[in-house]
Amino acid sequence: MSRKKVIAGNWKMNKTPEETRQLISELIGAVKDAKSDVIICTPYTSLALAVELTQNTNIVVGAQNMHYEQSGAFTGEVSADMLLGLGVKYVIVGHSERRQYFGETDETVNKKVTTALSKGLVPIVCCGESLQQREQGITEELVRSQVIIACNGISKEDVKKIIIAYEPIWAIGTGKTATEQQANDVCKVIRTVIGELYDSETADLVRIQYGGSMNAKNAAQLLSMPDIDGGLIGGASLKAGDFSVITNFNG
Ligand code: PEP
Predict the structure, then answer these.
(1) Could you tell me the residue range of the domain that residue 41 belongs to?
(2) What is the pLDDT of residues 46-55, one digit of tens each?
(3) Of all protein residues, whose CA lies closest to atom 7 belonging to ligand 1?
(4) What is the distance between the alpha carbons of residues 168 and 73, in angstroms, rounded to a whole number?
(5) 44 domain residue, yes or no
């Protein structure tokens, strides 16, 4: 089964609108011949501009979070309809930074995945263990449970659309990348879980990314692994040249 690679940049809390304009102007040329699908997840304040600037290019825009409710008294929050209204197509759900600093739980992740899919946004669902959990030997158990809860109530047709990002917390922003074998082993566990929850055809279709200090130097090895279908890229997505290198692998 050959799945097209998907590379998503997570800009995190970086880039003002003016800086966004500059980076996107560099990215458009840099990734125009990308072999993978290309997504950039900008801060909310840059989404409208990013959608406008990437019209008629191969770059698609995603958000970094959304609320699971449709509307109401949730000061500071943004709904799926608001994102769709801007032309946003993807949304990162359950990033470890949101779990750590903003109280995101497996249950809120499931609610967000459910809402995003019901509205037509594609969720990029993050999972992954801390260093302590890896050292305790509970990585597989933890990631299994994160994926099972995230997919609770999601139909087979809908689950085929989602992207799952395996992001070991100890590798995010640390410069400490998982080895390609470590990354592939967990991506394979995730695919096995999808197979158990649905069926093997569905498991074969779901795209699973690795994220955690992926960069222009280590991307080729990671992306050559059979169960790694792309990357969720933080730091290296802020440099057009580095990001474009990562988008040039497809196999
Ligand atoms: C991320 O933010 O999802 C991430 C993987 O960051 P970095 O590439 O900087 O480790």
Answers:
(1) 6-247
(2) 999 999 999 9
(3) 234
(4) 34
(5) yes
Provide mean pLDDT across the span 185-210. Answer: 98
Q: Would you tell me the crossing angle of helices 17-30 and 44-53 to the nearest 10 degrees?
A: 40
Q: Which of 95, 97, 104, 129 is catalytic?
A: 95
Active site residue 95: yes
Pocket test for ligand 1, best of 6, 11, 12 (most atoms within 8 A of CB): 12
Whether the pLDDT of residue 83 is over 70: the answer is yes
pLDDT at position 251: 61
Q: Is residue 118 part of a domain?
A: yes
**One of 97, 104, 129, 167 is an active-site residue; which one?**
167
Per DSSP, which regions of 106-193 are E strands? Answer: 122-127, 163-166
CATH number at residue 37: 3.20.20.70
| 1 within a domain of the structure (yes/no) | no
Hey, whose CA ends up nearest to atom 6 of ligand 1? Answer: 234
Confidence at 187, pLDDT banded by 50, 70, 90: very high
Query: What is the average pLDDT across 71-89?
Result: 98
